[in-house]
Every structure is written in C-alpha cells, then in structure tokens.
Design goal:
Blueprint (H helix, E strand, L loop, with lengths): L1 E5 L8 H16 L3 E4 L5 H12 L4 E6 L14 E5 L2 H10 L3 E4 L4 H15 L7 E4 L6 H12 L12 E3 L2 H10 L15
Parallel strand pairs: 1-2, 1-5, 2-3, 3-4, 5-6, 6-7
Length: 192
C-alpha cells in the first residue's frame, strides 16, 4: 500500500513539526508502506520522505518539471514523476495512493485536503483520509468546518469522511482498520 502525505514545503516552520513529519515517515515505513508525496526536499514533505527513507521502503515523488531547481526536490526517491501542471500532479498523487494523510501545511496543503475531501464526498473515491493535527495545528480549520455544519453549508455526515489525530501510530491504525462500507451513505444537498 502507498500512502500519500500532503504537507508544508516551508523551511521556516518550527522544528517540532519537522520532527513529527519524520516520525510519521518512519511509522509509515515500519509498517511496510510506501510513500507518495509532492516531491519536496524541505518542510514536512522532506521530513516524511526522510523518515520513510530510513526504513528502505519505496518513495514516489511527484512534482511539476518547473520545480527542478537545486535543492527543491527530494533526491532519494525510488521513483520520481515529473508533470507539466499542478493539476496533473494532484491527479497522480490521488491515483497512486491508497490513503491520504494531511500533515500541517499552507495553502497548497489546504487545497489538496479540500479537493480530496470533496472528491470523497462526491463518491469519486472511497480511500481513507486522516489529518495529522500536530500541536493542534488544524484546530481552527476543524472549527471552521464545524461552523459550516452549524450554518447548514455542510452536512454533519461530512465529518465522518476524515479522521483526526495528533498521533502517527493512531492514524495508521485508522487507515489499517478502515472499511469504506462504514462510510455514511449521504445525499449531499449542497455540493461544495
């Protein structure tokens, strides 16, 4: 099984996030899973890749060819796929993965999370989605989703389409026990 990890590429984030990203990567690899990620050498992308690399499990990096700048891309991928566009990149990340983990990140990570969540809501895939909420990073985003539910913009069942934890091991337990038949069967009135 390949697990996609979305996350920051920033070089300025607190070291505690980097350590958590490396821990996540090691946990993925120790359980015998491969990594699919956006190919970045820095931030949480690079941290997860380094963690998986320590376990000698496969790493697939996927990035647009215009990212080929010294130091930007992770050099130790088992396979690296270059795309022409960011949209093509996101499609390949989805296609080559059996599960998705959203680690802390910025606007690109938010975009990836909401796209993969929307596709699941629309029954375009039935793969598990988990949010790694390191240091409570996603608390305000989760509050925003709750506010959307309270306001009638989002069905309450949408919260069952993803799982949240601060623990990489807990997230991997969720992915391993995931059964798509347990997902809520909901007809969403408002397609977000």
């Amino acid at each position: 099984m390949n697990i996609c990890v979305y996350g920051a590429s920033s070089t300025t984030i607190d070291k505690s996030y980097i350590e958590a990203g490396e821990e996540l990567g090691r946990a993925i690899g120790k359980r015998g899973y491969g990594l699919v990620f956006g190919g970045g050498n820095n931030g949480l992308m690079g941290a997860a890749a380094r963690g998986v690399h320590e376990t000698c499990m496969p790493i697939i990096g996927i990035a647009p060819s215009f990212f080929q700048v010294d130091g930007i891309l992770y050099p130790n991928c088992t396979e690296f796929i270059y795309t022409e566009t960011m949209r093509e990149r996101k499609q390949l990340l989805e296609d080559k993965s059996c599960a998705f983990i959203i680690s802390p990140g910025g606007i690109g990570t938010f975009d990836e999370f909401f796209e993969i969540l929307t596709l699941k809501q629309l029954s375009r895939h039935t793969k598990p989605i988990a949010i790694l909420n390191t240091n409570g990073y996603y608390n305000k985003l989760l509050d925003m989703l709750e506010n959307s539910i309270d306001g009638g913009f989002l069905n309450r069942e949408a919260k069952e389409l993803y799982y949240v934890s601060e623990s990489p091991e807990d997230i991997l337990d969720y992915i391993e026990s995931y059964n798509p038949n347990n997902e809520p069967v909901t007809k969403f009135k408002n397609i977000q």
